[in-house]
Amino acid sequence: MPQDRPDDAFAWIDAQRERRDRAGLVRRLSPRPADSPLLDLASNDYLGLARHPEVTAAAAAAAQRWGAGSTGSRLVTGSTELHTTLERELAEFCGFEAALVFSSGYAANLAAVSALSGREALIVSDAGNHASLIDGCRLSRAEVAVVPHADPDAVRKVLGAAEEDTREEAAEAAEAAGAVPARRRALAVSDSVFSVDGDAAPLAALAAACRAHGAALVVDEAHGLGVLGEGGRGAVHGAGLAGAPDVVVTATLSKSLGSQGGVVLGPARVIEHLVNTARTFIFDTGLNPAAVGAALASLRLLRREPERAARVRTVAMGLYGRLTAAGLTAVRPDASVVSVRAPSPEQAVRWAADCRAAGLLVGCFRPPSVPDGISRLRLTARGDLTEEQVGRAVDVIVKTAPTA
After folding, report:
1. 75, 94, 264, 321: which is deepest, by most CB within 10 A?
2. What is the mean predicted confidence (pLDDT) over 330-350?
3. 52 phi, psi to nearest 5 deg
């Protein structure tokens, strides 16, 4: 192991690299060609729209009209009429009063969680949440309670205990100031569909738990938009919570909509609050016009062809059914992600590499990306896959599967 030297500021990096090597956790970039021969079950292009002619043409047209870059932050020069149109149509499609577009889904999550909480607030976070929600909790400076995965009762208990603990203190402080006792700011945050196993959150029960204690609910629809709900309007819409005054949704434009960027949807007063307080909105360069144009074209395609959402779910269930019938351990998908268990991190990496050598591109999730420490192949169903392609993918995965 390399020894730290007084004149070597980054000697510690070499030690960490060696530990990653020994644990089989080294990650490497794998640039893809423009026309890859691989069958893709790794990307998040759920509806197969990233290369759709209407979408790419809209991206090119937006760049030609508005320029390659947005030229500044949204509050200076980075907002175009195209941004406003996309926000209006996203809000209408998903059933919310208003929407605000960000440069990424990650930035949208950081904004929603941090700007709606704060130092005196309480955040209740699902143990399976995406890293962007976790980082939003960290940046918020709020008290954060991490609860067991998909457990509304645990959320209810934490919110109830916190309310009880602060009720007398708040009442005493308010009485001393001659004011009405204030309720402690609180919110629960959850993915709508969890990115590791592809299981859906119990949104109706989560909303009920929040409402019982006056808390807000923030839901990340990254894997729900375009796949779940009526015509792909998302799991929140499907649960009857769209447009609720105490529900906020975040989403990415880089998955089902085949573009790039993120969005927060919710009550108009929440969106106005984010415009004035969210650091990843105020201080970040606006989403480039080409990405805005592409996302808008994809959204309009989905409205015109709502059957695309159902097709993704059909493909996912087809993958799951064939893989489990072949004896592999997979998690039943609620949306587009199909998770297949691997015996170890090293075998997961080798399995993915063997699939690639056989012409199939799959995802590989291993610690620390998985909260339960279990390594997996992560397959993403796409609505444009044919039955022949699904069958070929299953054959490759089964033939290359490691033995336990």
Report:
1. 264
2. 94
3. -65, 135
